[in-house]
Write a structure and sequence with these properties.
The complex is a heterodimer of chains A (about 230) and B (about 550).
Chain A (H helix, E strand, L loop, with lengths): L1 E12 L6 E12 L3 E6 L5 H8 L7 E6 L2 E2 L5 H11 E4 L11 H11 L6 H10 L15 H14 L4 E5 L7 H17 L3 E5 L3 H5 L3 E6 L2 E2 L6 H6 L1
Parallel strand pairs in A: 3-8, 3-9, 6-7, 7-8
Antiparallel strand pairs in A: 1-2, 1-4, 4-5, 9-10
Helix pairs in contact in A: 3-5, 4-5, 5-6
Chain B lengths: L14 H14 L1 H40 L5 E6 L1 H8 L4 E13 L9 E6 L1 H6 L6 E2 L7 E5 H6 L7 H7 L3 E8 L2 E13 L8 E5 L1 H7 L23 E7 L5 H11 L8 E3 L10 H32 L1 H9 L4 H40 L15 H28 L2 H10 L15 H11 L1 H26 L3 H6 L28 H9 L20 H16 L1
Parallel strand pairs in B: 3-8, 5-7
Antiparallel strand pairs in B: 1-9, 1-10, 2-3, 2-6, 2-9, 4-7, 5-8, 6-7
Classes of the chains: A alpha/beta (about 230), B alpha+beta (about 550).
The structure holds adenosine-5'-triphosphate (ATP) and magnesium ion (MG).
C-alpha cells in the first residue's frame, strides 16, 4: 500500500543570480512500513526533500501526497495540525523543548491535539527505548543519545503515518549511533511505521529496506535492495 | 480538514498543555522573567507615582482655593428669589443645587480684622461651604448660631481644639448685625462650631431660617427686574444657588446655558469656581497635559514593548521547535499571551505598591516648597481610579507589545526555525557545529546586530527618566517667592486692619503714623522702607453718569 507519493518536486531558493535549485524534479513512491535511507553529498538537497515530505516548507512546484492527501493544498494552520497528527520528526539536535520533562516532551504532540495520551502505548514506547528512569528528567540532564531516543519516542507516540529523521545520529559517536538507529528500526517494525532517515553513515544506510541516493537535487538511483528481498 | 480517527482517547481541552508550557517557560529562566516583570513594574510605578502625586497636588490646590473662595461647588448663581432658585433646583441637568442666603454682616468692634458674614445655609450648602459644624449642630431656633472658631477667638474665647469647642456650646454671643438699612445687636446662643480657615475670604456665622426670615426676608421681586437695584443693600435676603455639574468642565459655558434654560434673567450674575481644574481648562493647558500624558505613556510603552520583544526573541528557538512538532500559530499566541499574564500580574502589583509608597513619601516634600496653606494636610490622595488606570494601561501596553511579539513568534516558519536550530542563524549555508548557543552570546549579537532595536530600548529608558525628572523638577522648582512677588513686593507690609476689611464702613487710614515709621527705621535689618498712600474718595456722579456707570458694572459682572 502506497503511503507517500512525490511527483516532480522542485524547490528553488532565492531568485535571480543567487537562486539555488535545491530540488530539480524528484519522483518517489513509498510503501507503508518501509524503512528508507536517504544518502548523498552535503548540499545535494536531502534536507530540503525531507522538509517538503513533512510539510515544513512549500515546494516551488510538484506535489507530495500522504495517505492520498495532497498536503500542499492545506493552509498553513491546517498543515501544522496535519503534521502533528500524521508525521513524526527527529532532527539532528535541539529536538526537545527544554522547559518540559522527558514525559511531557514525548506526549506534547498528543496534548497539543487536545487528546489524552494513551498511557499504556506511551509507556511501552518509553520502556522499549530504555527511558523508564528518565521520565521526569529534563533534556539538559540527558546525554545526546538519550535525547535522540526521547525524540524518537515523541515521533512514535502520536502513532503518525510517517516518521522523518534528518541525521538523527549526526551528533553521536558510532556506538551510540548504532544503538539509536537500531532502536529506530526496531520501533518502526514493531509499530508498523514508515520511516525515512537521512544519514551520512553508509553502514547505517545498509540496514535500510531501500537506499535513495540524492545527487544535485535529483534521485540518482533506483536501487531497491532489501525491499526486493523482503517481498521475494 | 476531515476529522481524523483518534487513537489516543477522548478529546480534551488543550488549554492545560498551553498553560503549562507558558508557566514553565516563565519559571525556567527566572533572571529573564525578573527583568520583564521589573520593566512592567517600572512602568506601572512611573504611572501610579506620577498620577498619585499630580492627582494629589491638584486635589490639594483645589481644596486650598475652595477654602479661599468658601465653596467647593462648580459655580454659583447670585441674588435669586425663591421662585428663581426653585427653577434651578428642579433642573434635572444639574447634578446638585444647594442654597445659601446672605443675611447680614457682623460689625462688632472685635471683628475689625475679620470679615464676618451671617448667612443661612441648608445642610448640604453648609457642607459645601466649609461651615458645617464639627461640634454641635446647625441652628434651628431664631436665636441660635453656628460659628467659625476664628470669630470666637476674635471675641477672646479659647477655641483651639474640639474640647474647647465642646465647652463653648451653649454660651452666648452678642453680635451687632448690619443688614438692609438696619443694624441690630442681639444675643445668640452658640449651638455649633466649625474650624475657621485663615485663608478664607470671610468667616461664616450660620443663622437659622427663622432669623433670616425676620432679619433679611427674601424679596419676592427679582433682583434683576429693578434697574435701580444692583446695590449691595439689595443683596440681603437673596438666595445664592451653588451648583455642581455632572461633567466638571467648562463651567462658564454650562452655567450660562443653565441660566438660559431655566429662563432666569439674562443679566443674572454668576460666579464659577476659578480654582477648579475644570474651570480653567483652556485649549493650551489641555494640549500640554495631553502631550505630557502621551510622552509618559509612550515611554512606558517603549520600555515594555522592547523588553518584551527581546524576551520573545530569546525564546524563538523554542517556538520554532514547538511549531515543527505541531503547535499551531494560534496555540503559540496563547502561550505567549499566557506568559504576558504571568509577567503582568506581579509586575503591576509591585509597580502600584511602589508608586503609592513613593507618591505618599514625595508628596509632603513637594508640598513643603509650595504656597499651600497650612490647613491643607499633605496626605496623598489615593485615587482608586488612577491606580486602576495605571494598572490597565500597563496591561494594555503589555498586550500590545505581546501582540507584536506573538506575530513574530507565530510567524516563524518551521523551516527557518530549523535552520535557526541547527545553524544558530537563519542562513543555511555557513555551518558551525561547534557554535553553541548561549544567552549572553545571543544578547550581544542582538545588541549589535539589531542596532535599531537597541537604540529604541535605550531611548525608551532615557525618555521615561527624562519625563520623570522633568515633572519632578517642575514641581520642586516651583518658586514660592516668585509666585508671591506677583502679589507682594516686600517681606512685610503693615496696615490698619480695617483698610481691607469689606465689612467695616469706617476705614482707618491714619493707622500708620510718621512716628511709627521712625521707630521702624530704627529696627535692625531693614534694608528698604516705602509707603503706600490711600485716600477714601467719593465720586459725585450726576444721574446720567450714574446710569452709565451702572450699565458698565452690569456688563462687567456679566462677562
Ligand atoms: N533556506 C535556504 N535558503 C537558501 N538556500 C538554501 C536553504 N536551504 C537550503 N539551501 C540550499 O539548498 C541546497 C540543498 O540544501 P540541503 O540542506 O537540502 O542539503 P543537504 O543535502 O541536506 O546537505 P547536508 O548533508 O549538508 O545537510 C544547498 O545548496 C543549500 O545551500
Ligand atoms: Mg541536511
Amino acid at each position: 500500500m502506497e503511503i507517500l507519493r512525490v511527483t516532480d518536486l522542485k524547490k528553488t531558493y532565492g531568485t535571480g543570480d543567487t537562486a539555488v535549485e535545491a530540488l530539480k524534479g524528484v519522483n518517489l513512491s513509498v510503501e507503508k512500513g518501509e524503512f528508507i535511507a536517504i544518502v548523498g553529498t552535503s548540499g545535494s538537497g536531502k534536507s530540503t526533500l525531507l522538509h517538503m515530505l513533512g510539510g515544513l516548507d512549500r515546494p516551488t512546484s510538484g506535489t507530495v501526497s500522504i495517505d492520498g492527501k495532497d498536503i500542499f493544498t492545506l493552509k498553513d494552520e491546517e498543515l501544522t495540525i496535519f503534521r502533528r497528527r500524521k508525521i513524526g520528526f527527529v532532527f539532528q539536535s535541539f529536538n526537545l523543548v527544554p522547559v518540559l520533562s522527558v514525559y511531557e516532551n514525548i506526549v506534547l504532540p498528543i496534548e497539543l491535539d487536545g487528546n489524552t495520551p494513551d498511557k499504556e502505548f506511551v509507556d511501552t514506547i518509553i520502556d522499549t527505548l530504555g527511558l523508564s528512569d528518565k521520565r521526569d528528567s529534563y533534556p539538559n540532564q540527558l546525554s545526546g543519545g538519550q535525547q535522540q531516543r526521547v525524540a524518537i519516542a515523541r515521533a512514535l507516540s502520536s502513532a503518525p503515518q510517517v516518521i522523518l529523521a534528518d541525521e538523527p545520529t549526526g551528533n553521536l559517536d558510532s556506538k551510540t549511533s548504532q544503538d539509536v538507529m537500531g532502536l529506530l528500526k526496531v520501533m518502526g517494525e514493531r509499530f508498523a511505521q514508515t520511516i525515512i532517515v537521512i544519514t551520512h553513515n553508509e553502514e547505517i544506510a545498509q540496514t535500510a529496506d531501500r537506499i535513495i541516493r540524492i545527487e544535485d537535487g535529483l534521485i540518482a538511483n533506483k536501487e531497491v535492495l532489501t525491499w526486493q528481498k523482503k517481498n521475494a | 480538514m476531515a476529522k481524523e480517527k483518534r487513537i489516543n482517547g477522548p478529546m480534551v481541552n488543550n488549554k492545560k498543555v498551553i498553560r503549562s508550557i507558558a508557566a514553565k517557560t516563565v519559571m525556567a529562566n527566572p533572571g529573564k522573567s525578573l527583568v520583564v516583570v521589573l520593566s512592567i513594574a517600572l512602568c506601572t510605578f512611573m504611572f501610579s507615582a506620577l498620577f498619585t502625586i499630580s492627582g494629589s497636588l491638584i486635589a490639594k490646590f483645589q481644596d486650598d482655593t475652595n477654602r479661599q473662595i468658601g465653596t467647593s461647588c462648580n459655580a454659583g448663581v447670585k441674588y435669586l428669589n425663591e421662585e428663581e432658585y426653585n427653577r434651578l433646583v428642579s433642573d434635572k441637568s444639574l447634578k446638585n443645587v444647594t442654597g445659601s442666603i446672605h443675611v447680614g454682616t457682623a460689625v462688632n468692634d472685635e471683628l475689625n480684622k475679620i470679615f464676618a458674614q451671617a448667612d443661612y445655609h441648608d445642610e448640604a450648602s453648609a457642607k459645601k461651604s466649609f461651615c458645617y459644624p464639627e461640634v454641635g449642630r446647625l441652628p434651628e431656633k431664631e436665636n441660635e448660631i453656628s460659628v467659625s472658631s476664628l470669630i470666637l477667638q476674635a471675641f477672646d474665647m479659647k477655641a483651639d481644639s474640639k474640647e474647647d469647642y465642646e465647652s463653648l456650646l451653649g454660651k452666648n454671643l452678642s453680635l451687632k448685625l448690619s443688614g438692609k438699612d438696619k443694624e441690630q445687636t442681639k444675643d445668640f446662643v452658640i449651638v455649633g462650631i466649625h474650624t475657621g480657615d485663615q485663608v478664607a475670604m470671610a468667616q461664616i456665622i450660620v443663622v437659622s431660617k427663622e432669623f433670616q426670615e425676620k432679619f433679611s426676608p427674601t424679596p419676592t421681586s427679582s433682583y434683576y427686574d429693578n434697574a435701580a437695584s444692583m446695590s449691595f443693600n439689595d443683596c440681603f435676603g437673596r438666595i445664592d444657588a451653588e451648583v455642581d455639574f455632572f461633567i466638571p468642565l467648562f463651567f462658564k459655558y454650562q452655567i450660562e446655558k443653565a441660566i438660559k434654560r431655566n429662563g432666569l434673567p439674562e443679566d443674572t450674575q454668576y460666579g464659577i469656581n476659578w480654582g477648579s481644574v475644570g474651570s480653567s481648562a483652556d485649549f493650551g493647558t489641555i494640549a500640554f497635559v495631553v502631550l505630557m500624558l502621551f510622552t509618559i505613556f509612550l515611554s512606558g510603552y517603549l520600555i515594555i514593548n522592547n523588553i518584551y520583544r527581546i524576551n520573545v526573541y530569546t525564546d524563538i528557538r523554542s517556538y520554532g521547535l514547538l511549531k515543527t512538532v505541531g503547535t499551531s500559530s494560534k496555540q503559540l499566541k496563547k502561550i505567549v499571551n499566557r506568559q504576558a499574564l504571568y509577567h503582568s500580574v506581579p509586575g503591576i502589583i509591585i509597580g502600584i505598591t511602589g508608586g503609592i509608597v513613593a507618591g505618599s513619601l514625595l508628596l509632603p516634600m513637594l508640598m513643603d516648597g509650595m504656597a499651600i496653606s497650612e490647613s491643607i494636610d499633605s496626605k496623598a490622595v489615593i485615587n482608586i481610579w488612577i491606580l486602576l488606570f495605571s494598572a490597565l494601561f500597563s496591561y494594555v501596553t503589555v498586550r500590545i507589545s505581546v501582540r507584536k511579539a506573538t506575530k513574530l513568534a507565530s510567524g516563524v516558519s518551521p523551516i527557518e526555525a530549523l535552520h535557526y536550530t541547527e545553524n544558530n542563524s537563519f542562513r543555511g549555508r555557513h555551518r558551525n557545529h561547534s557554535a553553541t548557543f548561549t544567552a549572553t552570546r545571543f544578547a550581544f549579537r542582538n545588541v549589535f546586530k539589531e542596532k535599531k532595536k537597541c537604540f529604541f530600548v535605550v531611548l525608551s529608558l532615557a525618555l521615561s527618566m527624562t519625563v520623570l525628572s522633568t515633572v519632578f523638577t517642575l514641581l520642586i522648582g516651583f518658586d514660592e517667592n516668585k509666585y508671591i512677588s506677583n502679589f507682594l513686593m516686600t517681606d512685610f507690609s503693615v496696615a490698619d486692619a480695617t483698610t481691607d476689611n469689606l465689612a467695616v464702613s469706617n476705614h482707618v487710614y491714619d493707622g500708620i503714623t510718621p512716628s511709627f515709621l521712625d521707630e521702624v527705621k530704627k529696627l535692625a535689618g531693614i534694608s528698604k522702607l516705602g509707603n503706600v498712600y490711600a485716600e477714601p474718595s467719593i465720586q459725585n456722579l450726576n444721574s446720567r453718569d450714574y446710569s452709565r456707570f451702572k450699565e458698565r458694572c452690569k456688563r462687567y459682572y456679566k462677562s
